[in-house]
Structures are given as C-alpha cells and as structure tokens.
Amino acid sequence: MVKVNFDAAVCRSKRKGSVASLARDSQGRVLAWHYRTVNHIYDLLILECIACRDALLMALHRGFKNIMVERDSLIVIQAANGHIFPLVIQGLIKDIEELGLSFNSISFTYA
C-alpha cells in the first residue's frame, strides 16, 4: 500500500496557486513527488482538487496499484468518496473518480 498526500497553496496577489503531492511506502520512505505552479487559478478548493487529480496521475504513472490518498481537505475527500460537492469542482471530481478506476484499490481518507 502506498500512501499519497497532496496539498495546494494560493498566492492571490500574483493570481496563481501551486499544487504538490508525495507518495510514501509503509516505512515512510519517499517513492515519488510532484509539484507545479497553476497560473490564473487562485481558488483553494479548485486547487485542492487539481492537487488530488495530479496525485492520482503521479501514482498511476509510477505504477502504484494500491494507494491510500490522505488529505485535510474535507470537501475534496468527501467528494471523492461520493458525497455531495459544489458544482464548481464537478469536472475535477469526475476526473478523480475516473482515475480511481485505474487502481486495484484506492481509499480517500481525511486526516
């Protein structure tokens, strides 16, 4: 089981955000990481969804089959688990759901 964490940050004055993700094994060793700047998007909820999607893409490209996705973004984790979510993130949640089908096992945990 690979544990995947993601995060996002906003810089409203520069009208951009950044997203990052990290994959670790059961001993806590870093297996992969990803970071990028997202220009012209500075809504934290949208950036958190982008970070989650990027985390799944990273895990998929690295060949991880069993992952546990963990984050403190309750809305994103609830949405990924099938709960009601704001319409503004509908497309991103659909991407996350479809990417989730690529794994043998995947869980989304609020931490």
UniProtKB/TrEMBL annotation:
GO terms for molecular function: nucleic acid binding; RNA-DNA hybrid ribonuclease activity. This is RNase H type-1 domain-containing protein. Gene3D superfamilies: Ribonuclease H-like superfamily/Ribonuclease H. It comes from Manihot esculenta (Cassava). Coiled coil: none annotated. InterPro entries: RNase_H-like_dom_plant (IPR044730), RNase_H-like_EbsB-rel (IPR052929), RNaseH-like_sf (IPR012337), RNaseH_domain (IPR002156), RNaseH_sf (IPR036397). Residues 5-110 form the RNase H type-1 domain.
